[in-house]
From TrEMBL, chain B:
Cellular component GO terms held in the UniProt record: plasma membrane; transmembrane transporter complex
Keyword Nucleotide-binding: yes
PANTHER family, per database record: ABC TRANSPORTER ATP-BINDING PROTEIN YTRE, IMPORT ATP-BINDING PROTEIN
Gene3D superfamilies, alphabetized: P-loop containing nucleotide triphosphate hydrolases
Species of the source: Paraglaciecola polaris LMG 21857
GO molecular function: ATP binding; ATP hydrolysis activity; transmembrane transporter activity
Record domain ABC transporter: where: 2-238
Classification via PROSITE patterns: ABC_TRANSPORTER_1 (PS00211), ABC_TRANSPORTER_2 (PS50893)
Alphabetical UniProt keywords: ATP-binding, Nucleotide-binding, Transport
Recorded superkingdom: Bacteria
Protein name, as recorded: ABC transporter related
Record-stated family: Belongs to the ABC transporter superfamily. Macrolide exporter (TC 3.A.1.122) family.
UniProt xrefs under Pfam families: ABC_tran
From TrEMBL, chain C:
Residues in ABC3 transporter permease C-terminal domain copies: 289-400
Family: Belongs to the ABC-4 integral membrane protein family.
Gene Ontology MF term list: transmembrane transporter activity
Subcellular location: Cell membrane
Signal peptide as annotated in the record: none
Listed transmembrane segments: 21-43, 286-310, 331-360, 372-390
Topology with respect to the bilayer: Multi-pass membrane protein
Domain of life: Bacteria
Species per Swiss-Prot/TrEMBL record: Paraglaciecola polaris LMG 21857
Record keyword Thylakoid present: no
Name the record gives this protein: ABC3 transporter permease C-terminal domain-containing protein
């Protein structure tokens, strides 16, 4: 009877109390060498923090803000450049198109959707609203701009084809501008004095912050979207200034505004939406045909060199992720490696001092796997604590990094999945790194350890 | 050769003062083989540490081979230790990371001999203790008796004036112990003074002279008589 | 005792604890690779940021005046504003400029020494500064002379007309007429847009293009033109130390003086510079932190490991002391052991450093590591690890030789 009871007791002990016991032993061991444990955790924490910060940077810079449509949206590039010199060496076409080509391609309506746009600015004089005038950053664009880039609307919508054809003075406001001028009220149908004329508000955007602002990165890949949106044709009507990047290879013939508009100067972003490869090849054929036709008119002196890059390809081409950040990413991976090696050597040094304790435990009946279990728990615990401290350090570090990359501030936020995967990596790294010393510490013959 | 006069050594902790040695007097002549016995806690080890310049003493006078030890700094004492004293410990105290050659080499390095001199001394002494063929082995690969022989080779390599042995057979079985004792006697016969600390009376009897430490003092009055007796026995043969 | 003689036994002893020795060696190697490459990149960026743009950066600021009403007269407004600004106490000089170094926007043209198409085209950023340009920006005139009031040409927006005289930066003159003969450019006729002839009136020492990353950043051309524009940008140079104060008061005064316009984009050149170089400054700061933290981590690791090794070997130290080692010799023993590990580390580290550099150079537009960085890396790693081991080694010195007789 007593023997049986003992057996049951032993069985119970195995199920959960043994684990508790090992946890307590691990904790005692960690607390027993406080400075050592803190040093080890801090080491792991620093490596994790460095990796998390750079991974977050890389991730926030390389995110595709319109991933679900990335393959359907294409940037159109046409090579209208100098016959003797490529726009972008060695032989790339310019990134922007001319006013002429922008309008021709948009009006041809050969893609599912198409939009040509450019950045500009002008004075807004909301005298009716009792506000002082201000200079607003504006985008002139085509009506398709809004649906093709999934632009979110708070009130109203973009303008329609009629408005475009009639050169109606319509405007879409950003949420911030609507807040500034109309105090956030539904301003659709309201009028606004700007550019010396009276405009009607047709829509107000909801929060819209693209990172990166893939459709036009000329003011920085992480700049905010424009404050107002007007139909493309109004650029010529109001002779609005040419914002963004203007490149010319031929001198503009005269000083008049329309001379520039008919020149070979590029300033407009041309995007199309194409649903499938078939549509894409049809559109590519159309572009070829268009350039051939223009060649017959004496333009496009260079060989045919049209490019259609989808959003992902475009972001890669534009090298949105700063090279420095990628270099820092590699350095931080190596940094983590150093930290893990450091932790491993600290743990191994500690376990060396435990040889006699291990020998004693084994002499008292602990088997190999129990010993490994006991010390592995200690290693896991140290790894997890290191991970947690690391995330706290990363949070603090990201604040600092965000202030350094002021222009990117909004985007740099700790990504929980990244943080968790880095912790997982660190714990696994610590276990692997710690297992070798655990193994060598557990293996030696009893006698030699007891003798010491 | 080794003269201790009224040596005192006090260990002070927050709570108590322990007089490990008090008025300790001893006179060892050249060529002696002295066994120091006593129960544990009697002050044997402290005596050994003081005699071997491993620890300082608080009072009294200690002259080793004509040199007054009092007032020597650590560096001078280290040098003296290195040149004049060879140690043999109960737990052999070989350095586990070093092979036999390097272990015997340790005191010779501190002595500053040149490479050829060291090599010849190492090989000569390892051969002397019968381990000349195992110079590349590590301590863990040897039996206890063999390890103690290496320790003896190491102690002898610097041709010290005398050997201090601390329970040299304490960790050995009787066969091994006997062979180690035989070796020590051989060494003594070739002129090296030996002081051996042990609690084993049987072993102590094999020495020429036996002293007993009790409460930090050389206490047995018969010691002097025994001394004279052994001197008389030995002198003609020397 | 000759220290170096001790290497043999220490090395053989290290081989007996391969695992921890290998860890330290790898750690030192990777640390060296990161630190060496990191320092090289940091230095490269630092030099890039600290280049002299040729203008009096600390004492300059700029602002934009944008007129918005129908009856706003840009030219009258510009004249009036400049008169007021130049008359302000503490202002050295001011001008209206389309663009300036570090403004990150502007135009560039191709110029050549003859109108023939065979002549080499030299790209040069175009600035429109009148006779106040040299004084406002604090430029140094090396040859020829400054513009006078008659040279100035008033232009309408988007004008392509060129005045008859220009100033060149020395780099532009050197690109046109050869490195040794840049002085000869004064008085010569050059051609813009293939066919517009202009005479070089003078040469300024250094003047950067508006874009800091432009390949021809030192090549600039100044023409004495003023563009009347509803928006006018003024650049103002103040007496040293008075920039921020004048920036505030002047902005307020200008805004009050003419209510037909708004004053915006008030910024010092220093601010503009910080923004333009933000990414480089970020790289430099982050890398510096990484280098310092890494050096710290590795030092801590080396110290921690040495400390544990010494604790583990207390008895061994006692034995050595008993066998006659002096305290100094114990210190030297551990320093030497550390130096030996470090030597293996930097040996492997040199390979890892070069390997990492080859990888980075092949992936990114980096300049290959100058080879003198290797000895620098080696020396710094030695310093780091030797400094780290001093404290534990001092503790080892304190181990009593009596440890040897204690059977632990």
């Amino acid at each position: 009877m007593p023997a049986k009871r003992l057996l049951i007791y032993k069985h119970k002990l195995k199920s959960h109390q043994v684990f508790n016991y090992y946890c307590r032993l691990a904790l005692l061991s960690i607390l027993g060498a406080k400075v050592h444990s803190i040093l080890t955790m801090l080491t792991i924490a620093l490596g994790i923090a460095a990796c998390t910060i750079t991974l977050t940077l890389v991730n926030s810079m390389s995110s595709n803000p319109i991933a679900h449509k990335s393959g359907q949206l294409f940037r159109v590039q046409l090579d209208n450049w100098d016959p003797n010199q490529a726009a972008i060496s060695p032989d790339l076409p310019p990134e922007f198109v001319t006013w002429t080509d922008a309008r021709n391609v948009v009006q041809a309506r050969q893609a599912k959707r198409q939009s040509a746009s450019a950045i500009t600015w002008g004075m807004v004089n909301p005298a009716e609203q009792g506000l002082t005038p201000f200079l607003a950053l504006m985008r002139v664009t085509s009506k398709d701009f809004f649906p093709m880039f999934d632009v979110p609307f708070l009130y109203g919508a973009g303008w329609d084809e009629n408005a475009e054809q009639n050169n109606d003075y319509v405007v879409v406001l950003s949420k911030e501008t609507n807040q500034r001028v109309f105090h956030g009220a539904n301003s659709v149908g309201q009028t606004l004095t700007m550019l010396g004329a009276t405009f009607t508000v047709v829509g107000v955007l909801n929060d819209w912050h693209l990172s990166p602002k893939f459709y036009d990165m000329s003011y920085g890949a992480f700049s905010d979207p424009e404050e107002m949106y007007l139909p493309l044709e109004l650029k010529a009507v109001f002779e609005l200034p040419h914002g963004g990047i203007t490149s010319c290879w031929k001198a503009v013939e005269s000083e008049r505004y329309d001379a520039f508009m008919h020149s070979e100067c590029t300033n407009f972003q041309l995007w199309v939406e194409l649903d499938n490869p078939q549509q894409k090849s049809q559109f590519a054929d159309y572009l070829t045909q268009y350039v051939q036709q223009q060649k017959s008119l004496g333009r496009f002196p260079r060989p045919l060199n049209n490019r259609l890059l989808n959003v992902a390809q475009w972001l890669e081409y534009k090298q949105v992720v700063k090279q420095d950040v990628q270099i820092m990413f590699w350095l931080s991976i190596m940094f983590l490696l150093v930290c893990l090696i450091n932790a491993a050597s600290l743990l191994s040094a500690k376990l060396h001092t435990k040889h006699s304790e291990i020998g004693l435990r084994r002499a008292l009946g602990a088997n190999f796997s129990q010993i490994v279990m006991q010390y592995s728990l200690e290693v896991v615990f140290i790894g997890l604590c290191g991970g947690l401290i690391g995330i706290i350090l990363a949070l603090v570090g990201l604040q600092g990094v965000a202030s350094l990359y002021a222009g990117y501030g909004r985007l740099i936020e700790l990504d929980i999945p990244i943080a968790l995967s880095v912790i997982l990596l660190a714990v696994m790294g610590t276990i692997i790194a710690g297992l070798v010393p655990v193994y060598t510490a557990c293996r030696p013959v009893l006698a030699t350890q007891l003798k010491q | 050769m080794l003269v201790m006069k009224n040596i005192g050594k006090v260990f002070t902790t927050d709570v108590v003062q322990t007089h490990a040695l008090r008025e300790f007097n001893l006179n060892v002549s050249e060529g002696d083989f002295v066994a120091v016995t006593g129960t544990s806690g009697s002050g044997k080890t402290t005596f050994l540490n003081v005699a071997g310049l491993l620890e300082t003493f608080d009072s009294g006078q200690y002259t080793l081979d004509g040199e007054n030890i009092q007032g020597l700094n650590d560096k001078q004492r280290s040098q003296l230790r290195n040149e004049k004293i060879g140690f043999i410990f109960q737990s052999f105290n070989l350095i586990p990371d070093l092979n036999l050659f390097d272990n015997v080499d340790v005191p010779l390095r501190y002595r500053g001999f040149n490479a050829a001199e060291r090599k010849s001394r190492i090989i000569q002494n390892l051969e002397r203790v019968g381990l000349g063929k195992r110079i590349k082995h590590y301590p863990a690969q040897l039996s206890g008796g063999q390890q103690q022989r290496v320790a003896i080779a190491r102690a002898l390599a610097g041709t010290p004036r005398f050997l201090l042995a601390d329970e040299p057979t304490g960790n050995l079985d009787s066969d091994m112990a006997n062979s180690v004792m035989t070796l020590l006697q051989e060494i003594n016969q070739s002129g090296t003074t030996i002081i051996m600390v042990t609690h084993d009376q049987a072993l102590a009897k094999q020495a020429q002279r036996q002293i007993i430490v009790r409460d930090g003092k050389v206490c047995d009055a018969s010691e002097t008589a025994a001394h004279i007796q052994t001197q008389a026995e030995i002198t003609p043969s020397v | 005792m000759n220290l170096l003689l001790n290497i043999g036994p220490i090395f053989r002893a290290l081989l007996q604890q391969k695992f921890s020795a290998i860890l330290v060696v790898i750690q030192v190697a990777i640390t060296m690779a990161i630190i060496t490459n990191g320092v090289a990149i940091t230095w490269d960026r630092y030099v890039h940021i600290e280049r002299e743009s040729g203008i009096d950066e600390p004492n300059l600021f700029f602002l934009t005046s944008s007129g918005f009403s129908q009856d706003f007269n840009p030219r009258a407004s510009i004249e009036q504003d400049l008169a007021l600004i130049r008359g302000t106490d503490g202002v050295i000089d001011a001008l209206q400029a389309n663009s300036f170094p570090l403004s990150d926007s502007g135009n560039w043209y191709e110029i050549q020494t003859s109108p023939e198409s065979s002549a080499q085209l030299i790209p040069a950023a175009s600035y429109k500064f009148d006779e106040h340009g040299i004084n406002t920006f604090g430029l140094t005139l090396l040859a020829g002379e400054n513009f006078n009031q008659q040279d100035t040409l008033w232009l309408e927006e988007a004008d392509s007309q060129w005045p008859s005289h220009v100033l060149l930066s020395r780099a532009t003159a050197a690109a046109l007429f050869g490195d040794q003969q840049w002085q000869k450019a004064v008085g010569k006729t050059i051609y813009v847009n293939h066919n517009t002839p202009i005479i070089v009136k003078g040469i300024v020492e250094q003047l950067y293009a508006p874009w800091v990353d432009w390949a021809h950043v030192e090549q600039t051309i100044i023409s004495p033109a003023r563009v009347t524009h509803n928006s006018a940008r003024y650049v103002i140079r103040t007496q040293p130390g008075r920039r921020d104060e004048i920036m505030q008061t002047l902005t307020a005064t200008l805004a009050k003086m003419n209510t037909q316009r708004v004053i915006r984009k008030v910024k010092s050149i220093q601010q503009a510079k910080d923004e333009i170089y933000a990414a480089d400054i970020a790289t430099v700061s982050i890398l510096l932190i990484v280098i310092i933290v890494l050096a710290f981590v590795t030092a801590m690791g080396v110290a921690g490991l040495a400390s544990f090794n010494i604790n583990k070997r207390r008895q061994q130290i006692g034995i050595r002391r008993a066998l006659g080692a002096s305290k100094r010799q114990i210190l030297h023993h551990f320093m030497l052991e550390n130096a030996l590990l470090c030597a293996m580390g930097v040996l492997l580290g040199s390979i890892v450093t070069l390997g990492l550099n080859v990888f980075l150079v092949s992936q990114y537009a980096l300049v290959p590591l100058p080879l003198y960085y290797l000895p620098l890396g080696i020396v710094s790693l030695f310093l780091i690890s030797q400094l780290a081991v001093i404290k534990p080694a001092y503790r080892a010195m304190g181990v009593s030789p009596a440890m040897a007789t204690r059977s632990n």
